[in-house]
Amino acid sequence: MSSDLLLIVLLGIGAAWFFASRRAIVSQGQSRGGIKAMHSLPHYYGFWAAIAAVIPAFIFFVVWSAAEESVFRSLAEQYFPADRADDFRPDIALTQIQNVVAGIRVGEVPAWVDEAALAWVRWDALASNALAAIVIGMAALLGFLAYRAVNPDFRARNWVERTITVLLAACSLVAIFTTIGIVFSVIFESIRFFGMISPMDFLFGLKWNPQIEFGENAGVGVSNYGAVPLFAGTLLISVIALLVAVPTGLFSAIYLSEYASPRLRSVVKPLMEILAGIPTVVYGFFAALTVAPFFREFGQSIGLTVSSESALAAGVVMGIMIIPFVSSLSDDVINAVPQSLRDAAYGLGSTKSESIKQVILPAALPGIVGSVLLAVSRAVGETMIVVMAAGLAANLTANPLDAVTTVTSQIVTILVGDQEFNSAKTLSAFALALTLICITLVLNIGALQIVKKYREQYD
Amino acid sequence: RDYVSIAGSSTVLPFSTIVAEAAGKRPGVKTPVVESGGSSVGKKGACTGIGTENIDIGNASSRMKVSELDVCAENNVEVTEIKVGYDGIVLASDRSGPELDVTREQLWLALAANVPNAEGTAFVPNFYTTWNEIDASLPNIAIRVLGPPTTSGTRASWEEMVNEKGGCKQNAAAKAILKAEGKSAKTCRPLRTDGGYVEAGEQDNLIVQKLQEDNSSFGVFGFSYLDQNSDVLQAAKVGGVAPTFEDIAAGDYPVSRSLFFYIKKAHVGVVPGIQEYAREWTKHWGEDGILAESGMIPMGEDERAVYADAIENLPTLTADMLD
Amino acid sequence: MDMTLTTSEPVLTIKEPSSVTEKTVGSVHVDNPRMQAKNVDVYYDDKHAIQDVTIDIGANEVIAFIGPSGCGKSTFLRCLNRMNDTIDICRVEGSITIDGKDIYDPSVDVVPLRARVGMVFQKPNPFPKSIYDNVAYGPRIHGLVESKAELDEVVEQSLTRAGLWGEVKDRLDQPGTGLSGGQQQRLCIARAIAVSPEVILMDEPCSALDPIATARIEELIHELSDQFTIVIVTHSMQQAARVSSRTAYFHLGKLIEVGPTKQIFTSPQHELTQDYITGRFG
Amino acid sequence: MDMTLTTSEPVLTIKEPSSVTEKTVGSVHVDNPRMQAKNVDVYYDDKHAIQDVTIDIGANEVIAFIGPSGCGKSTFLRCLNRMNDTIDICRVEGSITIDGKDIYDPSVDVVPLRARVGMVFQKPNPFPKSIYDNVAYGPRIHGLVESKAELDEVVEQSLTRAGLWGEVKDRLDQPGTGLSGGQQQRLCIARAIAVSPEVILMDEPCSALDPIATARIEELIHELSDQFTIVIVTHSMQQAARVSSRTAYFHLGKLIEVGPTKQIFTSPQHELTQDYITGRFG
Amino acid sequence: MTKPMITPQIAAERVARGVQARYARERRFQLIGKSAIGLALTFLAVLMTTILIRGIPGFFQYYVQVDVTLDAQLMDPRGDQSIDSFYDGNPRKIMQGAIYGLTGAEGRSAKKEAFKLLSIGGTDRIRNMVVNDPSLLGSEQNLWIAVDDDVDSYLRGHIKRATDEDNRRLSDRQLDMIDDLVDRGLIQYKISNYLFQGGASRNPELAGVKGAVVGSLFTLAITLILAFPIGVATAVYLEEFAPKNRLTEIIEVNINNLAAVPSVVFGILGLAVFIGFFGFQRSLPLVGGLVLALMTLPTIIISSRAALKAVPPSIRDAALGMGASRVQVITHHVLPLALPGMLTGTIIGMAQALGETAPLLMIGMVAFIVDTPASVMDPGTVLPVQIFMWADFAERMYVAKTSAAIIVLLSFLILMNAIAVVLRKKFERRW
Ligand SMILES: Nc1ncnc2c1ncn2[C@@H]1O[C@H](COP(=O)(O)OP(=O)(O)OP(=O)(O)O)[C@@H](O)[C@H]1O
Ligand SMILES: Nc1ncnc2c1ncn2[C@@H]1O[C@H](COP(=O)(O)OP(=O)(O)OP(=O)(O)O)[C@@H](O)[C@H]1O
Ligand SMILES: [Mg+2]
Ligand SMILES: [Mg+2]
Ligand SMILES: O=P([O-])([O-])[O-]
Prior knowledge:
With about 280 residues, chain C is an alpha/beta fold. Chain C has helices at about 75-80, 110-115, 130-140, 150-160, 165-170, 180-195, 210-225, 235-245, 260-265, 270-275, and strands at about 35-45, 45-60, 60-65, 90-100, 100, 115-120, 200-205, 230-235, 245-250, 255-260.
């Protein structure tokens, strides 16, 4: 039986037990004085039986399906020719067998492969029948047991709800597992990196200049892995972006929530949100070919040397991109400031702007900080604009007219470009990622503290 | 897996995809999937692991080194090397800008991280800021060359062919210093990071566009981008030779390299379509083929015959073939 | 004493004030009016929330507005310093004057008006700022002081008058929101008096407070009454009786009766007032 | 009549009930108790909001909880159907029984408990659903009816008993939130009685309503009192006097005095009760 | 009681003194607000205009009208009308004949140049015609065949006759032929039927976004199917069930932190876990969807929690007071009310997922994939990747195609948002 069909059958069995149990409880209840005499509503008994039938069987199905192939592969090894040539490759042989099973015959196929494939097909049939039998049997049996257990005193609702709660809790673990997964997928490489480059040099070094270190080029250039210029560049570009996005976004939010008519607001807000959805390649071209030359020419006209790749161009365009993060989220937060604070300010004779500046904004600060943080995250994570408009040169500078680069764009460039998995250069991407995550973690904990502190203050 | 999986050099990618697309037109053949990643990913991918979770063919814009072949040996993987053509690395600028006719040695002086000092006694950080400081015949404009980042094979080739072979090994002062310090010429390779050479990402189109914004800048990229944009770009002559189709093919243009792909032999006969894909190359790699049309410089007849033969017989690449 | 128990049977018929304009019972005018409302009507969109109310508010008196829920006490109170302007759908007709000047005149600025007619709200609403900044807010925005020293003095004086100085003088830089409910409300009063208003409007200022805190606020109102005109809305007749000298009874948007507090509570003249006072409803 | 005016000077000293446990004045027990609270203490974290309260609630009586703001009336009321469970920091000690069964017993399911002890809140809070669905919600989740016809009947009956049927029978499918405040509150009462509870808890059910709506609700309470036990929290002594047969006076977390309403209002025995009744505070 | 330092009279004077300046400040403040909005909208307008102006031409391309005879001999050399036979055929000859006829090209080099005017898509097209309908063999057809990308660029004015012949990709003779065809009305500018029907192609005139659109659909479907329920479930658990303790606080910080993790790191995760550990193939929309789902999850969780917080407690109280269980309160009352807010978060998250390339680089979705995926287990790519790759191809005509693809992506985005906004409106029925 194909697995799709099996799953449908499984659902069918669940549905059957649902209806059976529901019916059973209704008729049992009848003799006891109606639904009122039962602990739970009939459909909870139904759901209980369905859960009992479907969930364990489904888990079994998943585990079996995951394990099946490796079992077959080990079984298939018995078909390998006894007199194996030196270049006999078990994995390729298995692939070949599986190809034949899938109906792909490439070139001439040795007889034993055909035999193995035939066996494989047999096992497959056997296994899928066995699986079907077990899954259906399990579902039927457990469903039956649940069905039998049904009686008006059975706390079906509590059990169903407990299952739901467990499922919900399981979902909240996904976020945890994601983090664990991320840490695990960068930690080993990072450790290897720190085995080659001392963490001190990495964290406090002032020069970032990794050279290709493999193949012909091994040991040729002197690589520097000082991450400070990257973090400084990230900071510089983010600050420029925030200088564009925060005032524009915040003032837009203020105007929309405090002054604009609801209609204007309902039109302008989604319009501004489009800015966040424009692909970053577009922003990249815009930054590199429109904004950067503009700054350069403008700079020249007033006697400044502005390089074509400048933090300024990248930062400004990135700022445009993240305006909606600040405007939309701040707008929500400003709206949520209790009316009582506005009343208090107006009652004392504040003008609107005074009450906004001195009361509403301070009160909304935690939320605004949150929205800015989200905007910063987006800015820090952005690569395309940086690579296209700010270049990749890791200059340690505070001059926005210079070319700089950011952590994320280095990570992406390293991982996308020519690489060798054991070179310090490639590994440095993982170390950068790990460091960045640690830094954002600290930032987030800090932000949480700010939010906590201010949250105590109003309301 | 019922399709061919290819990865590697971003230089070979455009040509590889053209062939893949053509190969996929046959009924019942799935078009191969071509990923980028760089030459070393291609070479390493070809050499690591057998089994359908690994790639079948690796593209590379530089030939496998013995050390790289060792990886294959370690993994018990045999590969076949197929050369498909050449690519020239050009230095180009906007047509409205000054023309440039330089030698590789001058380019080295303009772009290397370290150059011999005026007395020729030691390497010092590159101090040239304008072209005419290197040689009076060159224009009096600031040195500003946009090119690929350190993660690029194109850049590595440039460093090898210009800085090492065309620069340090030709320059008397440099040779003397190297000898005195007991260093190999390889140490001449790194490019300057003080702004004379600008890492502009691996987006060659962007470099082309930036050159049009600023006509005193030069850009380093593959021949095909020059070919497509010949109406707006002019190429610098290197060693007196302009990067034309004919001169690169003839080997006269000094900054050019060969393009390869490596077939994981064990997958032939397992994953369908590998050899068919390789054969497809032979249909297009001639002077009139669509690959030439897209800017790949074809090999000569004889070489084509050799590699067409290799595609049929799949000889295993061995270390002595590489020397 | 038996008025509260005239019946333990529910009252079924509540009379609405007749809809033809009926004159308010009692003397709506006083000799030395600080504010005067004449034929004021207030609408929320179509809803006629205040109907033809005419009343004087005397200088330095404490006047209480009482009446059942929804009768328009708050609405009328908020007209007195144009806080209703902040509600889009609210429309005010008729005239309200302060010291003879119409506050709804187009030439009148609400900003100085609200500095003259301060407001204290039902729920204490200190700003999420320090105690000092809460009190200093008004003088600062209105530019009432010339120096930091002067500001310090205004803050101290206001807090003292609000009976809070002793309790907070050592922690002026701590957030106002950290105070207890009663203290917060006194802080709000201090904040209001810091701009030296002539009139202070209070909308059920004690309804969120416990009896002990309430007693302190009432005491404070009593003390402030010799310098300020105070209008207080309250649900509690007892409170009205304790703090006010005049009382106005509202019913479904109309001003039914006005008079000296003593008189309203002992011998109400209008039937509705009487019913309310005697607890037949409310 | 003069009790409200014993003084127009503010009262400055509010006595707190002495902190040593002092027995509640009056008879806390009744002959036919439906619910019994014994030595109940409630804490919000450290805050001791209810202190050692013992009281019986008789079958089919209307009992009123009165007392100044923050004295714990709502807190105690919410203990009676374990609505306090929803507040994390709230901890209840002592025992509360309904028909002799401890409702805080770990084996007790709150769901059926709350079906037996219904609740009506201060602010009318109909579900954002149709009028019909509002009333049908309880019977549906508790499985009280077997068929649509039966459900229709329950809905009609409940609305009729809540005195709302006539007003809404033509628009049962319209949103409950579209009704006026008083109608909404009656809808909430209808919703509560639709599950045929034994006890209905009402927390200031009329405080958001105008006098006309309030009168209807009081009438309704009166009518319901012959089938249900009703516990009502109110700020208005008049209302307590009108609707209840027994009254309990709370003060700062303590139950000070319980007794027949008439007696509490005419001859309160505890000093605090007396002060409150006579309007010295509150 | 102390005498007030500032009497009401003094106060009134001082207030009056400053009031004009304060109103001026108020007006300035409003003006700043308006300019901020104006500025943001101007940016948007500039960007959108640029995109539209650049992109619209990408929806069109030039076609040349040719008459061909589907010669059975050439098309079906084996004569058995089998697929193999058709693929052994030589439709190229037929196209050559047609174009030589049209241009009157004589001589080897002229013929070669003439044939280069046509896209190679033409030969594929006539082959497909007979494959799909063998009865067409031998018939005469009048077809509009796409011109080669260089010709297209010339017609668009990107290649100019004024340029030195050596420096352009078309010879003078070719230009003459083209001009002649244009004069005869045989070349026309028409809506491109390759853009939406074609997959990725290295022939810019044949390249289309179909594969990428389908890939994006598959990927986003997986993302939505996973991220929305899991995100909402997590939010519900944290907001409604979880005890407030250290663990939940850690989860909260952790989720906030995940929102700040650069997207490429999710790609690293996907590579390590889904491809490395679970052994999925590279380039699968399934894996892409999984990675993007993990990336989108924090956004959805954070906004869903905010939406849940905003549900008025009175509704919960009402339902609890009726004896509803927690799960019932949530499913009957809280979720319906919180859904609009949850949808907002989903819109933002999905918009970001739609535009992502960096994490997909790591899992092999940045690849040249011609075939349109038929399921989430077929290799596929997505729109932003397509844009990213096209933007870097050397051929000029990709500039227009890229811009057109950007418009397609934006339309996709706006469509997605519109659906969500409509849904939100529907649930927002405020009672
Ligand atoms: N913002 C508003 N929009 C529409 N109607 C309103 C608004 N504010 C008040 N109303 C209505 O105006 C009437 C008077 O309301 P108001 O708040 O003035 O009553 P109140 O006497 O202060 O009542 P309470 O004692 O409950 O505070 C009420 O019917 C109320 O519903
Ligand atoms: N959720 C809570 N958390 C902490 N303290 C609370 C909470 N709810 C009530 N309290 C405190 O418990 C005490 C009793 O509150 P409760 O709401 O029961 O008073 P009440 O008599 O109903 O007052 P009111 O008449 O204002 O409704 C008050 O001091 C209050 O501040
Ligand atoms: Mg009010
Ligand atoms: Mg209460
Ligand atoms: O990708 P490369 O060809 O530069 O190695």
